[in-house]
Write a structure and sequence with these properties.
Layout: E1 2-4, E2 8-13, E3 20-27, E4 39-44, E5 50-55, E6 59-64, E7 70-74, E8 81-86, E9 93-97, E10 103-106, E11 116-117, E12 126-131, E13 138-142, E14 147-151, E15 156-160, E16 169-174, E17 180-186, E18 194-200
Antiparallel strand pairs: 1-2, 2-3, 4-5, 5-6, 6-7, 8-9, 9-10, 10-11, 12-13, 13-14, 14-15, 16-17, 17-18
Length: 207
């Protein structure tokens, strides 16, 4: 299990007794290869080989999940980062910037790879990103309460989901079979509490 905090990224091993911390992968020291001030998102690749994280230090990093060793990092980005997800087959990572710059793709397995902007993405703050396992649709949650789907490979918009609430989605998860998406967030200014919603992406036979 990986945990991002206000100034670190920690890797834990879980067991029947609860678990233990294996290592602190980074801290908020800007001189480090991967500074970690305000880590908003950490996630594992589908095959559990890699771990990636973003921070307000304008950095994104990828680690070997088994050893905890930093594989590669970019800390020359323009704005703070809040969200990141692996592309299918570990073909790269996709992340969203905080200052209304939209979405970006980075092939972390190619050391000289440039960070590529998705021209089709809306220039909005991005809170949460998930990628479906078939590699066609990409869905992101934005501050304006609307979720949009993108085809990352062709850099095109596939459509948008109806507005769930008057506030943005704070986090999302996709089921292992790629059939469902769960979203959560806060309600409107004059409403109390939060929400969790389930979306069906692939209809059952006969629907």
């Amino acid at each position: 299990m990986a945990v991002g905090t206000s100034n670190s990224i920690d890797l834990y091993e879980l067991n029947a007794k609860g678990g233990r911390r294996i290592s602190e992968l980074t801290d908020d020291d800007a001189r480090r290869d991967m500074p970690a001030y305000m880590v908003h998102c950490v996630t594992f690749s589908a095959d559990s080989r890699w771990l990636t994280a973003t921070s307000w230090s304008k950095a994104v990093g990828v680690w070997d999940a088994k050893t905890g060793n930093l594989h590669i990092a970019r800390k020359d980005l323009v704005h703070s980062l809040m969200s990141v997800a692996f592309l299918p087959g570990n073909a790269g990572v996709i992340f969203g910037e905080h200052n209304e710059e939209g979405l970006f793709v980075w092939d972390f397995q190619q050391p000289d790879s440039e960070v590529r902007s998705l021209s089709s993405s809306r220039k909005r703050n991005v809170r949460s990103i998930i990628v479906t396992n078939h590699g066609i649709a990409f869905v992101n949650g934005e501050w304006d309460g609307i979720m949009r789907a993108y085809d990352v490979a062709t850099d095109t918009v596939l459509g948008r989901f109806q507005q769930a609430t008057s506030m943005g989605t704070t986090n999302m998860a996709v089921s292992p079979d790629g059939r469902y998406i769960a979203t959560c967030g806060g309600r409107g200014q004059n409403e109390s509490g939060g929400y969790v919603q389930l979306w069906k992406l692939v209809p059952e036979k006969g629907e």
